[in-house]
Specification:
single chain; alpha/beta; nine-stranded mixed beta sheet; globular; disordered N terminus; binds S-adenosylmethionine
Length: 446
């Protein structure tokens, strides 16, 4: 497959058939979707379909026990490729922790609903920790070139000096911790730099992933796991550094289409026992107004509006205290109009065992379904929340500026197997034709 414009996967060609256990699980998820369709009069928006097949408690892709990440899963994220990813992030994160420390906040606010690394898991919450996904009542300001879509503030010279400082007060919050590898490798590196945050909180919706993260941290950094806490919702205020990699793309959007002067929302219905994509006239005037403000002036068009993702960033903006930093990494574009032609029908894609599927409704509950991120919409949302955009770069540019190649040279001699496999991973992370171009790093400050 072409990795330029999509989630990274291995581009395999023969779609493997799920085993009987997986099929049986998928049938349970499909039955759940059929019940929702019945309740909705035979039609379900794609947003509600994705919410069900990805996040229904005990059933959804992220909420049940499939492997998901890595070689044996469905896709590979940056932290699964190589520890050098998190090691490289340690420098800008430590600089941001030092910066937060210099703002010396009032005593740390207790974080809500916390599980400590060593404690027993608590029963899963069915509440979304994210704000409700209602469209904002006021339309966003017109697209502007966001202030400071420029260079990173974490330049090498400053970073080297700052890393020496001991930063103890501020906390780190990771949203959507995946397998826990990023947290483990980052904490290891921050410890080596004498820059451990007092608390490392992970906000993770999935109870099975929370358990996996706990296990990874116990295995890899047993001496640091007591600093880690699991949250079930966003704290009311937060001072420190927030990091999220590939979370926004996993939040279900509303999918809106304009054909001539008519507006539709994409959804799902049953056709001869099979789920199919079906549009319905858009019945939400606020959503239509929002789409109209973002769509090109003329022409038929379809795009995803990630209302819940935008609400998350706006809320984060309101809750981050002065001196805090938010790092967002994801794949997407600066504005919908610049999407390559292959996304004329929208960016919604489904992944299974490193294949991109033509039919995102196949095998409900077994596929990861994602959409590209509209970074301008996200930047505007964060700015509405009070954050300032300080940097927007491709992942390739960012990681190279932060010294990923220096980290690579420390692996060993270039002819050694360890170096060669790390070099291959780094190439994937920074190559504009792989993850280096379509993935962006966006930095916000309060
Ligand atoms: C594509 S995975 C990325 C995982 C990890 N950040 C990485 O790079 O490997 C998406 C992650 O976001 C989490 N997630 C999705 N929606 C979430 C939400 N509303 N709150 C917290 N975590 C969420 C998923 O459970 C999963 O851990």
């Amino acid at each position: 497959m072409n990795t330029t414009h999509s989630k990274f996967n291995r581009g395999k060609t023969t779609l493997p058939e799920p085993d009987a256990v997986a099929h049986a699980h998928s049938e349970k998820v499909a039955a759940h979707v059929r019940r929702l369709l019945d309740a909705g009069g035979g039609w379900l928006s794609l947003h509600d379909y994705m919410q069900a097949v990805l996040y229904a408690p005990g059933l959804g892709y992220y909420m049940a026990g499939t492997q998901k990440f890595g070689e044996g899963g469905d896709f590979i994220t940056a932290s699964e490729l190589t520890p050098l990813y998190a090691q490289t992030w340690a420098m800008p994160i430590s600089a941001a922790l030092v910066q937060a420390q210099s703002f010396s906040p009032s005593p740390p606010t207790p974080l809500p609903q916390v599980e400590r690394g060593a404690s027993n898991p608590r029963p899963p919450s069915t509440d979304s920790p994210f704000p409700p996904s209602n469209p904002p009542s006021a339309l966003p300001t017109p697209l502007q070139t966001p202030v400071g879509f420029a260079d990173t503030p974490f330049e090498k010279g400053a970073r080297r000096g700052q890393a020496e400082a001991k930063c103890s007060t501020p906390s780190m919050l990771e949203l959507g911790g995946g397998s826990g590898l990023f947290a483990a490798h980052l904490l290891q590196q921050l410890k080596a730099m004498n820059c451990l945050p007092d608390r490392y909180a992970i906000l993770e919706l999935s109870p099975t992933l929370r358990e996996r993260q706990r296990q990874t941290l116990h295995d890899k950094v047993p001496d640091l796991v007591s600093r880690v806490e699991w949250l079930e919702r966003l704290p009311d205020t937060f001072h420190g550094v927030v990091f999220m990699n590939e979370v926004l793309d996993a939040i279900p959007p509303r999918v809106v289409e304009r054909v001539g002067d008519a507006w539709y929302e994409h959804g799902v219905r049953l056709d001869d026992g099979r789920f199919i994509i079906a549009s319905q006239p858009l019945s939400d005037p606020a959503l239509q107004a929002l789409a109209a403000s973002r769509f090109p002036v003329r022409g038929d068009y379809v795009a995803e509006l990630n209302i819940a993702g935008e609400a998350l960033l706006e809320t984060l903006g309101q809750r981050l205290t002065s001196g805090s930093t938010l790092f967002i990494i994801d794949y997407g574009f600066e504005r919908a109009e610049t999407l390559p032609a292959q996304y004329a029908g929208g960016t919604l894609r489904a992944y299974y065992r490193h294949h991109v599927l033509n039919d995102p409704l196949l095998w409900p509950g077994l596929l990861d379904i994602t959409c590209h991120v509209d970074f301008v919409a996200m930047a505007e949302a964060a700015q509405r929340g009070g954050l300032a955009l300080t940097s927007f770069q491709t992942q390739g540019e960012f990681l190279q500026k932060q010294g990923i190649l220096d980290h690579l040279t420390r692996i060993g001699a270039p002819e050694e197997a360890a170096y060669l496999s790390a070099a291959q991973a780094v190439r994937t992370l920074i190559n504009p034709e792989a993850m280096g171009g379509v993935f962006k790093v966006v930095v916000f400050r309060n």
